[in-house]
Amino acid sequence: MSLSIEPLEHVGVQVLDFDLRQPISDAMAEELKALWYEHAILVFREQDIDAETQIELSRVFGPLAIHPLPSTRHPDHPELFINKAGDEDDYLTLAYFDGEPLVARLDWHVDLIYTGKPNHGAVLRAVQVPDNEGMTGFGDRALAYDRLDSETQALLSDLEVAYHFVQNQGQMRFCDNVKFEPGPNLPKSVEEAGVPDFPDAAYPAVGTHPVSGRQVLQIVPFFLNRVIAPEKAGLSEDEADDLLRRIVKHVRRPELHYFHEWSPGDVIMWDNWRAMHCTTGTRPGTKRLVHRTTILGDATLGRQLA
Length: 306
Ligand SMILES: [Fe+2]
Hints:
Elements: E1 4-7, E2 13-16, H1 26-39, E3 41-44, H2 51-59, E4 81-85, H3 90-93, E5 94-97, E6 100-103, E7 106-109, E8 121-128, E9 136-140, H4 141-146, H5 150-156, E10 160-163, E11 180-182, H6 190-193, E12 201-204, E13 206-208, E14 215-217, E15 224-228, H7 237-251, E16 257-260, E17 267-271, E18 275-279, E19 288-295, E20 303-304
Parallel strand pairs: 2-3
Antiparallel strand pairs: 1-2, 3-17, 4-19, 5-6, 5-11, 7-18, 8-17, 8-19, 9-16, 9-18, 10-12, 10-15, 12-20, 13-14
Bound molecules: fe (ii) ion (FE2).
The site of fe (ii) ion has 3 residues, from loops.
């Protein structure tokens, strides 16, 4: 059997006429993986699957992570991360964007980039989703690299960039924060959030995808902090910051993105080693429930700095 696909707007594909309830044979697993590595973002619309099926499907792509916080895990399925909004916990992620209160809005990022070892990918399944809000955006960093001019590609090929873990977006140097204000309960520091601190992580500005071998841009705004030793490339620190601003502007170009408007049952999987993603957030009190599984990977793309 061969999967039938349709390109999404700009990046990724939708898999058509495929019922995820059917058992996945070894041959089908290979086909799904090949499709994932080719397109990085796979969408399956309006599926009728349960938690076990989501977990089984995710295992096709690799072993699964267990979220460190027990409160976010599904009580019967520890591999499932419960991503919810619309209740009393909203205040924890509330922030203001141009004066508008939004829950769980996140700028473009790669999960766990600050550790030096991002997970391989994730699968999201919409259980309950509102209309016209709470979109998830996906961007292709391999395509972003391909679309740079050759002079910029050559300049980046010698550079390393550092990511610095901080607690909220207002403290990130390359996020679009002109109109960002933290909500009253958004943790202001790593200590206040009670999460472990992380040393900075370094990445080649252009990485090689561990499976496909594609060149992938490793510059995304969330947690991005600086170019390491810019003088080696003949750049001052200001010039290095200007370069990062220019590349961040490039990765924000809409023609590198697909934004998903969710319907119940939609399933999306993305390759975190190649895609970046963002969330548009929901208004406080808007009910939203998404189940996530996270695929571990055995590749280390960056390194932790002492
Ligand atoms: Fe994320």
